[in-house]
Amino acid sequence: AFSPQLLDWCLQRPITVIRGLAQACEMDLSLYTTKTLVETHPNHPVEIRTQLEQSSDENWAPSLEEQVWYCTSSRSHATVSKYAEYLATSFKEAKERLGDQFSVNPKLDLSQTPETGLPDRRTIKFGTNCDLSDEKKWRPQIQELMKLPCWLRVVSAGNMLSHIGHQILGMNTIQLYMKVPCSRTPGHQENNNFAAVNMNIGPGDSEWFGVPNQYWGALQELCEKNNVDYLHGSWWPKMSDLREAGIPCYRFMQRPGELVWVNTGCVHWVQASGWCNNVAWNTGPLTYRQYKASIERYEWNKSQRYQSIVAMVFLTWNMAQNIQVSDAELYQAMKTTMMRSLQQSVLLKQYALENNIPIRFHGHGPNEPVNYCMVCEEEVFNVFFVKENEKKHVVHCLRCARQLNKDLASWICLEEYDIEHLKNIFDSFTLGDSSVQPTLENPLKLAMVNNNIKCESQSI
């Protein structure tokens, strides 16, 4: 489990299921069962998705008259104890209905309504995005994951997402999923194409589908063709459509105690075969491939008016302070991002000076969240614009501010970092020694990690 070969294997393939990992790491998976959750925090909130019960090979329109790509999944909210009641009822009903044929991965009844000849499908409820980020409430659950190899952990120096300096729920924190048979997570790529880790707690199995990153464009075109939005929409691909388009698809079962590694950019969708809980989070291996894919998606998201919840410019500056990388391509890509953001800061300040817009130093405190333009939702790093007389400043990028007021009269320009400070970080970020050997705690061969990153990262 702790061999560098396992990391190499996972980094070279689109998606991997690692059998028996929980057992090899002597993990106590009972910490993540519904029973434990109800006993410890019964009133903890959980998001509910109401879906259609159907096999993983089909995806019916709400009318049940045709199969489509759009995946019906409406949202509501409940508590852990309320959802646990629903789970227990669903389990008991299935036991009574199936008798001797019952199993934790039950055979699905794909009957039709005699009068209409249409499929007869019930609705089910899927408990999703249960947030386990609170260290006071969920300390045992968070601590248990430290038994995993460091490149799979929620927090490690070699994980880009540990350097952002604040929590991004479900990405650098844990989320839990509570499933009845046929619960679905529709097709998607992870936020900013980061890698993902998913552990099945059991008792049932989960069925996974994965398409390599290089086919995401072809898959996006198929989404368009089938009237679903690739980024914003909810969709479940038809396997026959993928075959016709020449898009390869991995398909496998994840059993209890097995971990799925979703590599950078892999498009995936998942269906529960039985009653099971899963815990999942994201990780950003410090490789050129991961960084490049995340930056590219960050830029593409802007063109799609889709918010990047990982602020890649802010993250890059933090990483430059916290670590020294020995990969020349990764180093160069990070330097390029920093250089462009420095140039943008200088040009924005110059614009403000030339147009008599007052510039005020605002600062950025540790653990403070990243600033996003409130109109276009793009990250604004270092320099942004606000109306002078507002009690609570509403952040705008220059483009959106000028759309509201072309000459920016009564606006001010706020600056978070001194340009000299940024120049010093830029100059101090040098390429590390490439002869560094991988170790258990440093499998990604970081040349140097600042002393102050134990589990916390330094913010600029």
What does this structure look like?
The protein has 460 residues and is an alpha+beta fold. The chain is 28% helix and 20% strand. The chain has helices at 4-11, 21-24, 34-40, 80-98, 139-144, 216-225, 239-244, 288-303, 312-322, 328-354, 398-404, 419-428; strands at residues 15-18, 45-52, 74-79, 123-131, 175-179, 184-188, 195-203, 206-211, 250-254, 259-262, 267-272, 276-283, 323-324, 359-361, 383-387, 411-415, 448-449. The strands form four sheets. An eight-stranded antiparallel sheet has the order 1-10-7-12-5-4-2-3. It has a four-stranded antiparallel sheet with strand order 6-11-8-9, with no helix packed on it. A three-stranded mixed sheet has the order 14-16-15, with helices on one face. α8 runs parallel beside α10 (328-354), α9 (312-322) crosses α10 (328-354) and α10 (328-354) runs antiparallel to α12. The two termini are 35 Å apart. Mean pLDDT is 94; it is low at 451-457.
